[in-house]
Amino acid sequence: MATVSPQRVAFEAARVLVTVARTDSCWWVFGEVGRCLGNAYETRLLETRLRLQHEDCYYAEAGYWRVVLEEQIDARPDVAECLYRIVGAAPLVD
């Protein structure tokens, strides 16, 4: 992985996760996040997907995920590389 600040990884990952949550191609990404962070995070992404279907809350969700991901990277620095990989491979279709 190129040297990228953990905050930048968290920001980009949050943006990508919330963008992908609005699409039908979210299942692969959610599964990868579940493998990287644990099944509870996959479930939380499903909750984000449901909220996005009923509310205009993209920015609130992106902010929430940025904080969550920063905390995970601080606790487990290896998570940054995993998230970087997921972000690079995520299908972004709007």
Q: What order do the SSEs take from the amino end to the carboxyl end, as H and E?
A: HHHHH
Tell me the number of structural domains: 1
Portion in strands: under 5%
Helix residue percentage: over 70%
Number of helices: 5
| Average pLDDT | 91
> Terminal Cα separation, in Å?
27 Å
* Structural class by sheet pairing and helices: mainly alpha
Tell me about the largest β-sheet.
Answer: none
Shape: globular
Low-confidence stretches: none
- Radius of gyration, rounded? 12 Å
Explain what you see.
It is built from 5 helices and no strands. It has 94 residues and is mostly helical. It has one domain. Helices cover 79% and strands 0% of the residues.
Give the topology, please.
Layout: H1 6-21, H2 26-37, H3 39-54, H4 58-75, H5 78-89
Helix pairs in contact: 1-4, 1-5, 2-3, 2-5
